[in-house]
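Hi C.,

You asked whether I'd gotten around to modeling the 73-residue construct. I have! Everything is below, sequence then structure, no commentary in between.
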Amino acid sequence: MSNDTQWNLWEVFVQLKTGKAHEHVGSVHASDKEIALQNARDVFARRDKPVSIWVVPAESIIATTPQDNEAFF
């Protein structure tokens, strides 16, 4: 956790039907993975009942930049 009062950021992915891909639906703040999962359920499973929910620490995700895309595509 950083020096400020903000909890860690977790990215949330849900699978709405068995066999379908997980899709990113948003993010939550939480102190640990169990709280992140509970927060994700509270926020993202109200209307739809997902088959599966993944929470991933945002700091663990690596992504391309627009400049990377120009080099590869």
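If it helps when you're writing up: The first strand starts at residue 8 and ends at 15.

Thanks,
B.
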